[in-house]
Amino acid sequence: MGNRRLLFLLGVLAVNYLLFQSILVPYGSGNAPWSSVPQKYDKVRFPSLHSTPNYFTVWSPPMGSVSGFSNSSAFIATVEKMPNPIVQFEVGNDRNDARSLSEKKDVGRKGDRLDLESVGSQNFNAILAKGSNVNFSGKQFSKTEGGAWLVNDNNMDSREYGGVRVHISHSSTSSTNVTSLGNFAQKVVFSASNNSTVMITPRRKMRCMMPPKTRTLIQEMNHILVRRRASARATRPRWSSKRDLEILAARLEIEHAPIVTQDKQLYAPLFRNLSMFKRSYELMERTLKVYIYKDGDKPIFHQPILKGLYASEGWFMKLMEENKYFVVKDPSKAHLFYLPFSARMLEHSLYVRNSHNRTNLRQFLKDYTDKISTKYPHFNRTGGADHFLVACHDWAPYETRHHMEYCIKALCNADVTQGFKIGRDVSLPEAYVRSVRDPQRDLGGKPPQQRPILAFYAGNMHGYLRPILLKHWKDKDPDMKIYGPMPHGIANKMNYIHHMKNSKYCICPKGYEVNSPRVVEAIFYECVPVIISDNFVPPFFEVLNWDAFSIILAEKDIPNLKHILVSVSQEKYLKLQLGVRKAQKHFFWHVKPLKYDLFHMTLHSIWYNRVFQIKL
Predict the structure, then answer these.
(1) From the DSSP assignment, how many helices (H) and strands (E) are in the chain?
(2) Is residue 184 part of a domain?
(3) Are residues 270 and 407 in the same domain?
(4) pLDDT, tens digit, 9 for 90 and up, residues 440-472
(5) d(CA 298, CA 112)
(6) 313, 301 in Cβ contact below 8 A?
(7) Is residue 566 one of the residues assigned to a domain?
């Protein structure tokens, strides 16, 4: 009886085994009996994937007709060493469409072969597990010239090898060798039959590494501001509010402000209209009330970062939540509503490193917006037009798109090509804070007559523009101290500060994004900033006159940089340098806020833009 039961179980296992063999991708020491895959292949080898990546992915979108193409392999992977290689098929053209993935197929023994069949418009991923050693083969491989080449890299991510798009994901630091036939032009073609082709395309460049398709220069930005002041663009509220009437009354007073030509605390040339700014600031102090949402958990909400590159959003959050003068507990008394999240902590908490996928960050903020709009009536009343956020991380424009579209956004990345709205949004200064206890440490610089260096720049080669700057000016002229990245260390940091304190002009080119902390650094060290970043809206653009304390150039002017700077008269330079010193007070963070400092200037610009955007 026991032997019969054992034979019955073995029979069931055998039947299941054969059924799975017929369903899964064929594999074995040779071809399955029902497969017509040829036995000989021209090979492209990726040997030596035996370090610590979790998996290896080749993305291949088939191109052209595949009629009459069945029971033969477009792509073959021979597994020489494994544990557990995995194959996933992906249908359609969207690699991120998880719904299109079928179940995973596992191959269990050394020497097994995976035959990947391309049918119709499918794309496939060959995903091979950690420890695999694999050859990829094509039935017919397009003729290439040149020998094999070798790439050794650590922490490898999405890259191109000979034009082949390859993705390697890691669990820890690794050293992976990838060998491929070299000298591919821009694509590698695998022919499965005379009427079907599989093509692997090279990876597209990232947006931040390419010049923008459109350019908005400072003169056009001024015209846009004037046009938008003349016609408010905010969403009409769904019902009226007493606070709206108070803001409208403030607008009338600002537009008819008494003429002011001089002020003991304000330097008139710095402002577009000193009279309007002064009156608006007074009305802000007298009228403005802000409600801060308590919803949201740390560390993304209510936990400010006060040091480093993104410190501006943290300092504003800290000082706003501690404020007892502007903040109210009753939302019915508020003119503005603050969304107190940190874009830096959002990235730190939720972004999966090297995934190149930020959709979960945007979805997180969308869920938060949905929550407060359901829980409270205020967001829905105006569509968010009386709500504001303050964010300094580069990704904030993307993360707040659509669901916070009508909010007032105070952003360091003030890029008009990324949705920044002049006249509604606020350009936030990117202030690199090195000391929380003393944010103004190392402030100041040499007098104008004791600055021997004409122009200075040193920094990483981020983006497409900085290499162009170095190409034209590095080691080309003794008056132009243009360098690449300085070595790390306190001594080199002090050398960097020393150069800024001894330079007439500090070059502030864009990096990956349009903004740069060098603008505020130059003001700190009393060096006239030379801003080279098309589409960048300078901080507090709605109230400050940047022509009074900076030079703003188009990116195309880099070859003529020295000629432009030496053509500035000494008289004009002295006025610019004086403007920088007078502007300093507006770019400082203080542990206890002071009148007209960076906290109050940020809050004022948010208030000012709301005043001129309001509709009844």
Answers:
(1) 15, 26
(2) no
(3) yes
(4) 988 999 999 999 999 999 999 999 999 999 999
(5) 50
(6) no
(7) yes
What tens digit of pLDDT does each residue of 320-345 get? Answer: 999 999 999 999 999 999 999 999 99
Q: Examine the domain organization and report whether 607 and 583 are in the same domain.
A: no
Helical packing angle, 343-350 and 359-375, nearest 10° = 120
Q: Which domain holds residue 521?
A: 453-587
Q: Indicate the pTM of the whole model.
A: 0.70
Sign of CA dihedral 109, 115, 121, 127: positive
**CA separation for the pair 357, 345 (Å, rounded):** 16
Q: How high is the pLDDT of residue 204?
A: 64
CB atoms within 10 A of CB 571: 8
The answer to whether residues 231 and 363 belong to one domain is yes
Is 504 found in the same domain as 424?
Answer: no
b/e sequence 435-471, b meaning 16+ C-beta within 10 Å: ebeebeebeebbebeebebbbbbbbeebbbbbebbbe
Task: In whole angstroms, give the CA distance from residue 280 to residue 540.
Answer: 14
Neighbouring residues of 452: CB distance < 8 A, sequence distance ≥ 6? 502
- Cβ contact 123:95 at 8 Å: yes
Q: When comparing pLDDT for 223 and 137, which is higher?
A: 223
Over residues 554-613, the pLDDT tens digits come to 999 999 999 999 999 999 999 999 999 999 999 999 999 999 999 999 999 999 999 999
Please give the Cα distance from 215 to 416 (Å, whole number): 9
CATH number for 493: 3.40.50.2000
Tokens at 377, concatenated: 């009536």
Q: Are residues 470 and 399 in the same domain?
A: no
Query: Are residues 470 and 341 both part of a single domain?
Result: no
- Give yes or no: residues 372 and 238 share one domain: yes
Integer Cα distance of 165 and 187 in angstroms = 9
Q: Is 290 a member of any domain?
A: yes
Residue 125 bridge partners (DSSP) = 59, 88
Residue 189 counted as domain residue: no
Helix H or strand E encompassing 89 = strand 86-90
Report the DSSP beta bridge partners of residue 341.
301
The answer for residues whose C-beta is within 8 angstroms of residue 372's C-beta and 6 or more apart is 293, 295, 339, 379
Q: Report how far apart the first and last C-alpha atoms of the chain are (Å, whole number).
A: 89
Q: In what order do the strands lie in the sheet with 133-138?
A: 42-46, 133-138, 75-81, 113-116
State how many domains the chain has: 2
Tokens of 403: 């669901």
